[in-house]
Amino acid sequence: MKLLHIIASPRGESSRTIGISREFLSNLKKNNSDLVVDDLNLFEIELPEVLTDVASAKYALMQGSSVPEESKKTWAVVAKYSQEFLSYDAYLITSPMWNFTVPYKLKHYIDVIMQAGILFKFSENGVEGLAKNKKMFCVTSRGNDYSPGSYMHQFDFQEPYLRSIFGLAGIQDVSFINAQPLDIAPGLTIASIEKAKEEAKAMASK
What domain range includes position 135? Predict the structure, then answer.
């Protein structure tokens, strides 16, 4: 199994989210001897900007035309990110919650890869995802508790967004570990991280 680890935390190995993901990957490797993991740290790469030339290419392709000559160079870079994403069997997204949703680097990456004709297509039956039969694991960390039934749950735009956008691409098998709350009290933080690591071990064995 070939897995892409998409890292959306700028804190490196001091990141609590990354620490939980490392626990998951360590146990996943024990259960899958053929596992190959590639890290993609979004804070260490320069993603292409989605500007006029990319938009022109995107809409030309959506309308059945070819990519305009002036857009070909930039579009090739964008398309490469999408095609590389599609080449993996599974994905791990490591993402803290920022302002109730995902960090801007992850949103930028998603805006780059979510291209019609590569990750999804339009048909007479509507939108069809082209990344079917793939798995996605998401490890998130939150300062507060956004669990269902809590007052803060209404502000959780992170998990619904990730489920929806990658569902559009055809990825329906999505599992979440939400480490929370991490910023209320030191003792609660330690307990929440340990709980999340136990959940990571369990998720890796499924």
Answer: 2-204
